[in-house]
Amino acid sequence: MTLPAAPKSSTNLVQIAAFSVIVASVVLGLKFLAYRLTGSIALYSDALESIINVVAAGAALLALWVSQRPADHNHPYGHTKAEYLSAVVEGVLIVLAALSILRVAIPDALNPRPVEASFEGLGVNLAASVINALWAAYILRVGRAARSPALLADGKHVMSDVVTSVGVLVGVLLAKFTGWSVLDPLLAIMVALNILWSGWGLLSESVGGLMDKGVDAATEARIRTAMSEHGQGALEMHDLRTRHSGKVTFVEFHLVVPGEMSVSAAHIICDRLEDAIQTELEGARVTIHVEPQEKAKHHGVLVL
């Protein structure tokens, strides 16, 4: 399996998302073939989740295509939040997939039937899992590097699929060799519960982005350090606020300077702070409100 080159632009991220749709479709075909060869309800539940993978990959592709569009009159801050919408859609689809699996697996657990799992079918499912694992590792690496919520959501979902697929394979083999047919639907139920947990995590994270959740503590500490180290000439900085919008981080704060300082001098300090923060967070958009010294609050990031 040849992976695309590492992305150098938003356009390449869209190409990677498009390739993800192809990979998800291939894996879906392999998993349904494995189900047809084995008749395993657990493998059927695994194949059902792959349908969601295809839809989710398509949603990520659409979101990345929209998010790279430049700011316009109606969207002065750009379109980057489209990635969070994609992640929310994916989370909802994951939950629906889990409920579909439970609807099939619970009756089978109450009335288990013998598992006629062929090694050919299990081998096909294993091949699909290997493809998924390689692709998930790649898009997670790309998603972290590009700070793309859509790709990260897709990668986490695919990796979750890999984990459940491995568990299903082990369980089906146990059911085949021990004769405990109930293991097959029980494993399907466990897959559904794991999918529900994955969907809840995705929904929580993406809703946080839509609700303008601030950066994590470690990132905020980096911002504060950059502010403190490059704010020479100012008296104080306070009311720091941050939020994510896709791969863009917005940073806002108040800068207190001596009342007699000229606008040009204050502007030089602002430029220096913007450069420092953007060095720490590539693509950050910084807004600084300059205030005279009587507006000092004596808390926040103090310039010594």
Automatic annotation (TrEMBL):
Residues 217-292 form the Cation efflux protein cytoplasmic domain. Its main location: membrane. It is a multi-pass membrane protein. Residues 19-211 form the Cation efflux protein transmembrane domain. Coiled coil: none annotated. It is found in: Membrane. Keywords: Membrane, Transmembrane, Transmembrane helix, Transport. InterPro entries: Cation_efflux (IPR002524), Cation_efflux_CTD (IPR027470), Cation_efflux_CTD_sf (IPR036837), Cation_efflux_TM (IPR058533), Cation_efflux_TMD_sf (IPR027469), CDF_Transporter (IPR050291). Pfam families: Cation_efflux (PF01545), ZT_dimer (PF16916). The keyword Transmembrane applies. The chain crosses the membrane at residues 12-35, 47-66, 87-106, 126-146, 158-180, 186-203. Belongs to the cation diffusion facilitator (CDF) transporter (TC 2.A.4) family. This is Ferrous-iron efflux pump FieF. It comes from Deinococcus xinjiangensis.
